[in-house]
Amino acid sequence: MLDALTLSQIRTFVTVAESGSFRSGAARLSRVQSAVSHAIANLEAELNVSLFDRSGHRPILTPEGQTLLANARDVLLRVDAMRARARGLGEGVELELSLIVDTLFPIAQVGEAIVEMRALYPSVSIKLTVEPLGGPIAALMDKRSTLAVVVGEDFRDPRIAFEALSSIRSVAVVSKGHPLAMTSRSMPARVTDLADHLQVVLSDPTPLSGAREFGVMSPQTCRVNTQETKHALILSGLGWGRLPFWLIARDLAENRLVRLDTKTLGRNAELATEAYLAHRLDEPLGPAARAFGQALTSIVNK
């Protein structure tokens, strides 16, 4: 009967599948190999299916095992999330709140939310990091941060909960004296025009991007690790690139930067991307983290 399934059996199944062998799975679980083999055999008997093909040197998931592995992971994820929520309900105020924020998100709004949170919990110290691209998600996965503000849809993980916050406008710009600014005054810039000039882009501090490029359209690039550096270099006339509107609104109004006149980079050279508040499903949020999240949500929706 399925009622006889245990979480220990399910966790053992997932661990063996992910580690590639009964021996490795046993080592991860700090159990003897015979106990792990026995647990898998009992689980197979309860489910009335073979989860692993044991005919080779290493056990290989059967088609049934592949199918049920996704269900097993989902069960463990939900149980871990329930345990985390229960722990959070019983725990006191955090000593420290660690936050990581995508460089595209307006940090002033984060500051406002921290002020509101500390009005309720003045003893909580803050650790705040700002990183681009995969940085916020990597920090959550590595448990280096409790909460993250993530911008965009490029990095997702089923172990992370996402709550939409606001839309971030990014504008493709150059300095007013850049050749592309001159081109745009006479006719819209084409893809070939953009490729003829250096593009200033952010580099990912994590391996999550792999070989993917995000919005890179020129073979000539200058890769930087902060939004402030990118902003300064574009202002200097070095090249073109996208910058968040909240950062450059004054530069545009005072004509230090100009929008690229091109249909290649979105209408009016602008794209909108969603920002999310994110946290691990299996880690409890304490009172200060919850207060910060509520404050930030309220601030961005004013």
From TrEMBL:
InterPro entries, alphabetized: LysR_HTH_N, LysR_subst-bd, WH-like_DNA-bd_sf, WH_DNA-bd_sf
Pfam families found in the cross-reference section: HTH_1, LysR_substrate
Name under which the protein is recorded: LysR family transcriptional regulator
All residue ranges annotated as the HTH lysR-type domain in the record: 5-62
Keyword Transcription regulation among record annotations: yes
Assigned keywords, A-Z: DNA-binding, Transcription, Transcription regulation
PROSITE patterns: HTH_LYSR
Family that this chain belongs to: Belongs to the LysR transcriptional regulatory family.
Top-level division of the source organism's lineage: Bacteria
SUPFAM superfamilies per UniProt: Periplasmic binding protein-like II, Winged helix' DNA-binding domain
Organism: Sulfitobacter porphyrae
